[in-house]
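can u pls check wat happens w/ S-adenosylmethionine
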Amino acid sequence: TDQRTWQHVDSYIDRTLGLGDPVLDAALKASDAAGLPQIAVSASQGEFLNLLARLVGARRILEIGTLGGYSTICLARALPADGRLVTLEFDPRHAEVATANIAAAGLADRVEVRVGPALESLPLLQREQPEPFDLVFIDADKVNSGNYLRWALELGRPGTLVVVDNVVREGHLADVGSADPAIRGSQEAVELIAAEPRLRGTVLQTVGGKGYDGFALALVGE
Ligand code: SAM
């Protein structure tokens, strides 16, 4: 099979399950109109994130890498009315588009977009001594995926689920000795799951409209 087939099947899944509803479509349209790159999660991946948040009963979610807020909306929809999602975004233009999209989705009361490099925002967030996050979604600069996973341990608790997006990178995850910083970052995240006794997890390869990639999933333990 190839990209055309994966796209075709994603379309079938979206159509049949009614994924990518008008609110999410509007968020994508607004992101495109503002010239944001088309690198949000797909509709079925967004629904997968929503399911994961429901499965862990997430009341507090941390997202690293907001873009136009597509995955933010998918995740925040799983929160109870008193739930909270903090999302970190480096680019003020992306944050602005996301803030409008989140408001249009009726989720402004639950979501806070923080602008700045995540490695600066994370220590600031920690200083506020927030309630531990129940789910952390890592989807920003891939070179730092391992660093963000380390931060997820800091800001989580036993039972926290961490999802790291785009670790498979069309198979380059397996390029041992690669000098590509994004590949190294993905490998660091996977190696940390193996090395850190408080983490257990795995990597799931995915295909679809967004190509060939995959998620790392890790559960924080004692
Ligand atoms: N999670 C989004 C979604 O699925 O809808 C997609 C996020 S996109 C793949 C990655 C985002 O991370 C971009 O908006 C980019 O500006 C942001 N980013 C890149 N480097 C960052 C950093 N150091 N700190 C915070 N955000 C960063």
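DSSP finds eight helices and seven strands in the chain.
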